[in-house]
Amino acid sequence: MAESKDSNTSPTVIIIGAGLTGLLAAQALKNHGFTVFLYDSEPHLNSRPRDWTILLHWALPLFSSLLPHSILANFDRAISNPYLDFDEWAETLPMYNGETGHLIFKSAVPGGRRITRRGLREVLSEGLGIQWGRKVTGLDTESDPEKVKVTLEGEEGVEEEMWADFVLGTDGSGSKVREILFENQENGEERAKVKRSGFMIGTCVVDYQDEDVVRKVLEKHPVMAMVMSRGAVGGFGVQYTTGTPPSHLQHTFFWTKIWKGSLSSTPNIPRKGPEAVRHLKQSWQDLSSDFQSFVDATPEDETHTQAFIDEMGTWIAQPFDNRDGRVTLAGDAGHPMLILRGQGFQHAVMDVHNYVQALLAIRDSGKDREEAVTAYDQDMVERGSKAAVQALEEAELAMDAKSVEKMLMVRKGHGRSV
To answer: For residues 94 and 73, is the Cβ–Cβ distance under 8 A?
Structure first.
């Protein structure tokens, strides 16, 4: 359980979902003296085998401002390649023509750092008493006009009830909190569902056994290089770095491929394991020699490679009933979007900042609760919906070399566009 002040001066906030957004919100609210309870349906912090990297760029200053110094001091532990000299090239995201190997363009990300989701969760979870194995099943805002009664179900089906002044849903793209908020609206269940995007993503996290391949990947870029080929876009980069700098470092790499497709039309596609590795390797051919070697050298055993294939989901944010300002959403629960241009977590950071400011205005300045949280919602929905649409458009443009020059990534880089 997070530290708390007297309940008369410190409103209680229940956060549903201990992903990056929920953990960041818990740390920020705790840092401002709120009483915070954080629940997650997973059994423990690293229960999911899948991990991925995230580029934290234009929202990094805001991210840093939300955290206490004791947590921010450990941020380097989450960086994929923390021993780099982050010069201008390291703080650039290059895009190559995957078939010729030529550099198409490069996008400056000054100050940007690529982190692993797992590493950042470990950093952000410190000092938080997260209650694992708890699924939210109900939110009662009728019994008390000032409070929310949250019903949670434990691992053995045992229900418990908690009361809070505020509830923040940060439970990911398939948010149960979002579903509850829409349940009394017309077609609410359908409106709240995350939608299939029509874009597939496959990822291999690789421990290469060939030092020449390791060297060539790092030569393309020491953090991540993007690649465009016919009907696909992807990237090759560093997932984890261990060892002793400067000369005794071991890198684990990743490569990702995105293409048009759907699980509904390819229900038998392998989703993980060696079969997924083979499928991804066989489906990505005709690349230039270096990039092809990165694919072909990927081991097809689970000791050296973890592979996952899925269809990406999206949901265009729309207004919802925030229960007189007592319940709202943030991050992927409020605006799940495709990973093109890496905007999702940036907007999640902005959500957390704005939510904390809204609650501070209510607590410290006496601002009307419904007015403050509704203003937060309106901004979150407007930003999130535009960014999600832009990500879908970006994915479409990335599939055809003739339309690449129209991409926001080319015209405006990775900076904020909403």
So the answer is: no
Query: Which element (helix H / strand E) includes 54?
Result: strand 53-56
Q: How far is CA 90 from CA 113, 216, 289, in A?
A: 9, 15, 23
Structure confidence at residue 136 as a pLDDT band (50, 70, 90):
very high
pLDDT in tens, 359-382: 999 999 999 999 999 999 999 999
Reduced to 3 states (helix: H, G, I; strand: E, B; else coil), residue 301 is: coil
Q: How far apart are CA 257 and CA 227, in angstroms?
A: 9
Summarize the chain as % helix, strand, coil (round to 5). Answer: 35, 25, 40
DSSP letters, 265-291, are T-TTS--BHHHHHHHHHHHS-S--HHH
Nearest of 148, 166, 142 to residue 369 by alpha carbon? 166
- What's the pTM value of the predicted model, to 2 decimals? 0.95
How far apart are alpha carbons 281 and 372 in whole angstroms? 51
Residue type, 271: R
Supply the mean pLDDT for the chain. Answer: 94
Range 260-267 contact pairs with CB under 8 angstroms and sequence separation of 24 or more: 260/198, 260/199, 260/200, 260/231, 260/399, 261/198, 261/199, 261/200, 261/311, 262/196, 262/198, 262/200, 262/311, 263/196, 263/200, 263/310, 263/311, 264/196, 266/200
Q: How far is the C-alpha of 240 from the C-alpha of 159, rounded, in Å? A: 39
**pLDDT attached to residue 405:** 86
